[in-house]
From TrEMBL:
Its EC number is 3.2.2.4. GO terms for cellular component: cytosol. InterPro entries: LOG_fam, LOG_family_nucleotidases. GO terms for molecular function: AMP nucleosidase activity. It catalyses: AMP + H2O = D-ribose 5-phosphate + adenine. It comes from Chthoniobacter flavus Ellin428. This is AMP nucleosidase. It holds the Pfam family Lysine_decarbox. It is an enzyme of class 3 (hydrolase).
Length: 245
């Protein structure tokens, strides 16, 4: 069978007027780019100086409120232990975390990090971010958080925070993330986990396994979160020392 002739002198040209062929070519190209990105993000440094903690939380909480001051204290304590703080870089509890980190080490470029996303309504990077990354999509931004973090702390938040928490939980469930604590602070998240247990573990019609609900560590206070992260960081430092031998 003779290949179809085109005015361009080659048989594999795809004309934009052929929408089905053009769409198929675009799909193959995008899928190929995803594979390249996935391969490149497998790289990791053998050793790093600081343990990186991502704090997910609401953009709506105002400075001076108990939640804001509590998250600021959490981040400051963690930087004092030798951690870097990652947030979404926006206002609210993201700003509280960056402010807490910045208050301890204003000169450290990697101590207070913001991973922001472009939104239809303007959301500027808060003034306490010392190193900022920008993303055009939530997809790439979430991926950045997942590959950059040694631990996740989820403080009160809305739908965006729920998305971030669920992404980390699901990747830990399917073992695409390892040894990365997911710490949920406050009653709202404990209630959510309890709801999941009640709705997903009915005998005979299970939608998840009991082990899945042991992944998140539910705590009641900032102090409990800090204690868990202190223990995790000790184990992480031991692994770093082993890697250097």
């Amino acid at each position: 069978m003779n290949p179809k002739k085109t005015p361009y002198g080659q048989a594999d040209v795809v004309l934009l007027s052929d929408e089905d062929a053009a769409a198929a070519l675009l799909e193959r190209a995008v899928t190929g780019l995803w594979e390249v990105v996935n391969d490149l993000t497998r790289f990791r440094r053998t050793t790093r100086q600081n343990f990186r903690v991502t704090i997910f939380g609401s953009a709506r909480i105002k400075p001076g409120t108990p939640a804001y001051e509590g998250v600021k204290k959490l981040a400051a304590e963690l930087v004092g232990l030798g951690c870097d703080i990652l947030t979404g870089g926006g206002p609210g509890l993201m700003q509280a975390a960056n402010e807490g980190a910045y208050s301890v080490d204003a000169t450290g470029l990697n101590r207070s990090i913001g991973i922001n996303v472009e939104l239809p309504f303007e959301q500027e990077v808060n003034p306490f971010v010392s190193q900022a990354y920008g993303h055009r999509t939530f997809f790439s931004r979430l991926h950045h958080f997942m590959i950059a973090s040694d631990a996740f702390v989820v403080v009160p938040g809305g739908i965006g925070t729920l998305l971030e928490m669920s992404m980390a939980w699901q990747l830990l469930q399917v073992r695409k993330l390892y040894n990365t604590p997911l710490i949920l602070v406050g009653k709202m998240w404990a209630d959510l986990v309890d709801w999941g247990k009640g709705c997903m573990l009915d005998e005979g019609s299970e939608l998840a396994s009991a082990a899945d609900f042991s992944i998140p560590h539910c705590v009641n206070s900032i102090e409990e979160a800090i204690a868990l992260l202190r223990e995790t960081r000790v184990a992480w430092l031991a692994a770093q020392a082993t890697a250097q031998r």
